[in-house]
Design goal:
Blueprint (H helix, E strand, L loop, with lengths): L7 E4 L3 H12 L4 E4 L3 H8 L4 E2 L3 H6 L3 E4 L6 H6 L13 E4 L5 H12 L4 E4 L2 E2 L1 H7 L2 E5 L2 H11 L3 E6 L5 H29 L4 H9 L6 H12 L4 E3 L4 H14 L4 H12 L5 E3 L10
Parallel strand pairs: 1-2, 1-4, 2-3, 4-5, 5-6, 8-9
Antiparallel strand pairs: 7-8, 10-11
Helix pairs in contact: 1-2, 1-6, 8-11, 8-12, 9-10, 11-12
Length: about 290
């Protein structure tokens, strides 16, 4: 159980946010929640959470407000009408778990700091299962707020890492996403070559995951196939995972040839590659 005197507010109770909020509530933190979907609040209110009507009300009842939101609503929730910035509350901190842009993180943090509200940009990695099990990786920007909120974040993250000023958490998350895409490319091309050489794909994937080629995504594939009976595995491909990194690199005059290759390969496949273990089949290059 927690020993802190912090009262948590939580805004955004989707798959990720709901799981994080539930872990914190069960850790003993008093909590006030808010989501546009009333049904998503029921599980938390059944375990003792209070409900607020606006982000401002959440903030006024809390000492630390966490949010897990779509990027296009973060600024409105933080700085808009009836937003967190309008709360009349001393010593308030805002922890944004959402994945946004570094520029937005800096902009929102500056707006809130002008109202004496500290902010931590703390995007997460580890998927819904990581949120449920408390095994997330959290990339953090802003040191003073990091020190204060670390005990809270450690309830949901096995790796909570300070990366510097506001915005750096979002930069870290974007680089992590780029590296994840490179892992997916290695899986695709490795499985493609294994298919062409006549190897049984299931057994090869399991063998590779036990060697130096082991990655989080390869472990996920093997677990789904061997432990959950998955016959077809869809790679988790999203244009932004490579596209965002390439935009940053372009601004720096930096050429990321591997990332460009991954973006090109996945784009040609329409960001949809499925490995069929029932037929031992992998889509050919396009």
């Amino acid at each position: 159980m927690k020993t802190s005197s912090e009262h948590i507010g939580f805004i955004g109770l989707g798959n990720m946010g709901g799981a994080i909020a539930l872990r914190l509530l069960r850790a003993g933190y008093p909590m006030t929640v808010l989501d546009l979907d009333q049904d998503k609040m029921k599980g938390l209110t059944n375990e003792g959470a209070d409900v607020a009507a606006t982000p401002r009300e959440v903030a006024e009842r809390s000492t630390v407000v966490l949010a897990s939101l779509q990027p296009d609503v973060v600024e409105e929730v933080a700085c808009g009408k009836n937003g967190i910035a309008e709360a009349k509350k001393e010593n308030l901190a805002f922890v944004d778990l959402s994945s946004t842009t570094p520029e937005l993180a800096v902009e929102v943090s500056e707006s809130l700091r002008a109202r004496r509200i500290e902010m931590l940009d703390a995007p997460v990695s580890g998927a819904d299962i990581g949120a449920t099990n408390g095994n997330l990786t959290i990339f953090v920007g802003d040191y003073q707020t990091y020190q204060r909120c670390l005990p809270i974040l450690q309830h949901v993250g096995r790796m909570v890492t300070y990366l510097g000023k506001n915005g750096n958490g979002q930069i870290g998350k974007r680089i992590n996403q780029m590296m994840q895409a490179m892992s997916e490319l290695a899986i695709y091309e490795g499985m493609l070559l294994a298919k062409k050489m006549g190897l049984p794909l299931q057994m090869f994937a399991r063998a590779a995951s036990a060697g130096c080629a082991q990655t989080w995504r390869l472990d996920e594939l093997v677990d789904n196939v061997f432990n959950h009976g998955e016959k077809k595995h869809r790679l988790r491909l999203r244009p932004g995972r490579t596209g965002n990194a390439l935009k940053v690199a372009e601004q720096l005059g930096l050429k990321l040839e591997g990332t460009e290759a991954a973006h090109r390969v996945f784009s040609r496949h329409g960001w949809e590659i499925v490995i069929d273990f029932e037929r031992d089949d992998v889509p050919d290059p396009l």
